[in-house]
């Protein structure tokens, strides 16, 4: 499988700490990298039978589900998937180094479980939920933007933001952190035009890919509590 074309980790990205241990990194993937990621998802999804969201209030199609340690998927997982997980963690650590968040961020995340969802532009939604089993998670977005919401128990109100193509959201998805998240709707006609030129089918979708770690993760610095 193809390697990433440019050493993204050398560049600086905009980031936003949406709340404790929820960090959004903007424009991490260039358009060629977004194209490459979409092609990798499509190629990998040939090994998987698509399934509809199980929850009646959500509307998306699961196109990919890999347990990275399963024999069945050995040699079928594109190296790009691991590369972009590493890039997200490296960038996150590099960009937030001066802030209090950096000490909570794990310094590496080898995904245990990789999934990808496709949301139709018309009617795509994801019911608010707290993840189970997961530890930290890295989410990439492609295609149309999603109106994404997050809320931790410490917040009075949920925060909504536009999760755009090429952005990454990294957060503590453990049951302990109880970070509720969901998608109210997909924002039509928001695919970058250069991406549509190469992948016209993305006009109809918002695509996400999730990299989850199950089990223990070491934070980059030992701390004696949370903020
Ligand atoms: O599609 C997304 O970006 C989010 C997916 C998600 O929240 C989940 O898999 O729990």
TrEMBL record:
Domain Alpha-ketoglutarate-dependent dioxygenase AlkB-like: 22-212
Top-level taxon of the source organism: Eukaryota
One Pfam family it belongs to: 2OG-FeII_Oxy_2
Protein name (database record): Alpha-ketoglutarate-dependent dioxygenase AlkB-like domain-containing protein
Source species taxonomy: Eukaryota, Sar, Rhizaria, Retaria, Foraminifera
UniProt cross-references to Gene3D superfamilies, sorted A to Z: Alpha-ketoglutarate-dependent dioxygenase AlkB-like
UniProt organism field: Reticulomyxa filosa
């Amino acid at each position: 499988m193809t390697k990433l074309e440019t050493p993204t980790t050398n560049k600086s990205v905009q980031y936003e700490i949406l709340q404790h241990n929820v960090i959004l990194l903007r424009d991490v993937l260039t358009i060629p990298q977004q194209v490459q990621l979409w092609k990798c998802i499509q190629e990998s999804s040939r090994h998987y039978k698509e399934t509809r969201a199980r929850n009646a209030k959500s509307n998306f199609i699961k196109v990919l589900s890999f347990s990275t340690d399963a024999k069945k998927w050995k040699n079928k997982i594109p190296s790009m998937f691991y590369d972009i997980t590493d890039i997200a963690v490296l960038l996150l650590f590099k960009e937030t180094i001066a802030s209090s968040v950096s000490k909570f961020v794990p310094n590496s995340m080898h995904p245990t479980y990789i999934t990808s969802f496709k949301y139709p532009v018309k009617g795509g939604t994801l019911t608010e939920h707290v993840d189970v089993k997961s530890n930290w998670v890295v989410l990439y977005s492609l295609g149309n933007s999603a109106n994404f919401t997050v809320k931790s128990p410490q917040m009075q109100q949920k925060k909504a933001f536009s999760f755009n193509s090429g952005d990454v959201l990294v957060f503590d998805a453990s049951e302990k952190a109880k970070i509720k998240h969901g998608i109210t709707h997909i924002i039509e006609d928001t695919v970058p035009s250069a991406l549509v030129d190469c992948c016209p089918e993305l006009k109809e979708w918002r695509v996400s890919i999730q990299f989850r770690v199950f089990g223990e993760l070491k934070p980059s610095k030992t701390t004696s509590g949370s903020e």
